[in-house]
Design a protein that fits this description.
By secondary structure, the protein is α/β, with parallel strands linked by helices. 47% of the residues lie in helices and 14% in strands.
Length: 373
Amino acid sequence: MANIFDYLAWRGDIDFSAAPFNPVDNVIFSQLAYLAFDDIVPVPEDRDGISIDLAARIYNEKLNNSHGRNFTPMFKEDPDLLLALASSKRFRNCQLFAFVNHINTDREIQFSALCIHIGDGSCYIAFRGTDASVIGWKEDFNMSFKEVIPSQLEAVEYLEKMAPMINVPLRVGGHSKGGNLAIYASSFCNKKIQQRITEVYNNDAPGFHKKVISSDGFNEIKNRIRFYVPQSSIIGMFFEHGSDYTVIKSNETGIMQHSLYSWEVTHNNLVHVENVTITSRFVNKTLQDWIGVLDNSQREQFIEALYSILSDADIKSFEDLEKTWFASAGRMIKSLSSTDETTRKLLMETFGKLFLSARRNIDSFFKQEQQNE
């Protein structure tokens, strides 16, 4: 059950000139995009870079001095990963640059990205996935009724801004929504930039509106997409993808398999398995059927109503919800009770359709599974 930390122990002393870039390196760089590099990694306008080694030292100092205030890593393993990278010959001299990170509730956008000079004559452009903010998750849910969301447009703008400054082949990737942004940016960027992209890495990301999949830009980069999902993938099964996926073995269960730290690795690859689990297929079919019975207007109204309840309850992140779940639950119930009858009816009917879809698919999936045994 080896993971990326084991990979660093096995291969960290081998630089990219001796062992070429591989899918595990992609996972590491995608995870690196989640770290709070504000005021550590230079912004695009500076045109400077900082080594992973130096970035790790500054980050660790900030973490130790913060005493947990406003500097809580999104993934508890992230600080250890950064230190392990800084201690490795393979990664410590990789240059980080052009870091951006912003959340705008008015525009309903959560966007972050950075560039990484790898040391093999190429650059990896990493887009961050959804963070713990409620607005970040709302933006993801907006994909269910919008052809394009603000962070996708921001990703195109970022790629087109950075590519002219980087005169090397490009790899573009990310985890969760970050993988979605990587594909969207690569599909709709300038054609000259598109030609420089060697691979696009999608690590368990939600898909797209059908119009994106049918676009000329997507078809141009389709064969360069490397799409990975864990055995019990849920997030990576959402919406349309238009490309085949490779299933990765995970040492976790259920939704926890979404974490890249749970993905199993070999000395230079991810561990493949034959197919996603029946649970993954059940959840995917249930959600697709549920979304399918709602038109765009109903989807938007449902998501807006749910977000309104969280906002009225003063819940800005899922960290808030987790730390004060009892008080938060009370505020949510109070918020729900104060909403108008039309909104309450909408929520109840929509959730009812979800449960109905689940009941139908339990019969069709699991009874068929029992018959096959």
